[in-house]
MmcQ/YjbR family DNA-binding protein (Streptomyces fimbriatus), 126 residues
Amino acid sequence: MTVPRNALRKWEKVREYALGLPGAAEEHPWGETVAKVNRKVFVFLGVDDGSRPLGMTVKLTDETAHAHALACPGAEPAGYGLGRSGWVGIPLEPEGAPDAELLCDWVEESYRTIAPKRLAAELDAR
């Protein structure tokens, strides 16, 4: 399976943005890429090896952002019961998928929900 180049570019921008946030670290549990802050995941990035479609999962507690994310092509509440807590899976490959800028906004919202207040404040100070 070939990964569409524009989707891969979006995935790479989102990953780079997530890892640039204060205290963020990349880990690879279950063979997937995740970004964590304070040992807690704030974005699941899946795999970029073409074995599965590119996508990301973020926690969106703002009702407007949550509804907007769910309106994206192929988006759905995250599995394993995470959807009940506001986690949304967003595919990056379909026609009409969100652009990298919007995806990064959602990553930042997810980060702010998970990160300790001092790290979120550090982000505000930038």
Remarks:
- Residues 58 and 107 are 6 Å apart (CA to CA).
